[in-house]
Amino acid sequence: MASSLLHFSAPFRTLQPPPPLPKPPRIPLHVSRFPRPLIHKSLAFSTGFRAAPGSGRFCLRAKASMAGKGNGKVEVFDSEEDLSVSLAKYTADLADKFSKEKGSFTVVLSGGSLIKSLRKLVEPPYVDAVDWSTWHVFWVDERVVPKDHVDSNYKLAFDGFLSKVPVLPGKVYAINDALPAEGAADDYETCLKHLVKSNVLSVSAATGFPKFDLMLLGMGPDGHVASLFPGHPLVKENEKWVTFIKDSPKPPPERITFTFPVINSSANIALVVCGAGKAGPVHAALGSGQNSDPLPVQMVSPEGELVWFLDKDAASKL
């Protein structure tokens, strides 16, 4: 399929390595802030460095790390700002790892507030230090609208992220917005299969589905991920790589989406959730109770590592 044409003017510059940072001091634990931790009886705190605005210095920010159900790890941050700092480092570290190992980094974006939470990647040090030439960018779902439409996930990502970093235009894989929903889904799946044959994408030895290096997912207030909604038959699709929906409960109604076998074949998944309005499904997914009718977010279970990035409001019911 034809790739979207992106134009970048920002030159690539080499960042001089910063001086070594001192070992951070041990931070006292105040477990009472988190009554009834997720699964275990205790919380482990780790420290992250963040540049103090205008000071050139670094200050410490505390985050709570918890063990989630299954193979998930849960990080809870005091604010969305602290979350975005950690998410940028997490993403940049994985990009560096895979780029050195195989010369490429395949990353899948979603819509909603996820792009806002990636904003630190377009700032120093990452905008200059990341090897953007190795990035291949995909979407876990897309609305079947023109690329310049306000509802387009491509437009959201372009305006807030892609237009500010030198990712190569030929490595950005947007949907063909001239096609109807079913045709756009088939076309995107054909594109993925072509990239598998050309060794841009690897395939899971366990499932035979494409294996992306990193999938960055958000979650809706109803617990949906991608365009896979609670109670919809598409959550059970297990053969197609990409499918379509014409009756989305959230507008616009026509979309294409990766299926769960593709999502769960990923090497790494970050689930990024902010806001008190999403605390309910976060509790359903990570709390100790059992749910006979699991939400889509509860069906996210990658072959590799799953990390939850939560602000304290999203984690308020845990």
TrEMBL record:
Catalytic activity, reaction form: 6-phospho-D-glucono-1,5-lactone + H2O = 6-phospho-D-gluconate + H(+)
User: EC number(s) of the enzyme?
Assistant: 3.1.1.31
Q: Which InterPro entries does the UniProt record give?
A: 6-phosphogluconolactonase_DevB, 6PGL, Glc/Gal-6P_isomerase, NagB/RpiA_transferase-like
| Signal sequence, start to end | none
| PANTHER family referenced in this protein's UniProt entry, alphabetically | 6-PHOSPHOGLUCONOLACTONASE, 6-PHOSPHOGLUCONOLACTONASE 3, CHLOROPLASTIC
Q: Which NCBIfam families match?
A: pgl (TIGR01198)
Q: Please identify the protein, giving its name as recorded.
A: Probable 6-phosphogluconolactonase
Taxonomic source organism: Hibiscus sabdariffa (roselle)
Q: Where is the organism placed in the taxonomic lineage, from the top?
A: Eukaryota, Viridiplantae, Streptophyta, Embryophyta, Tracheophyta
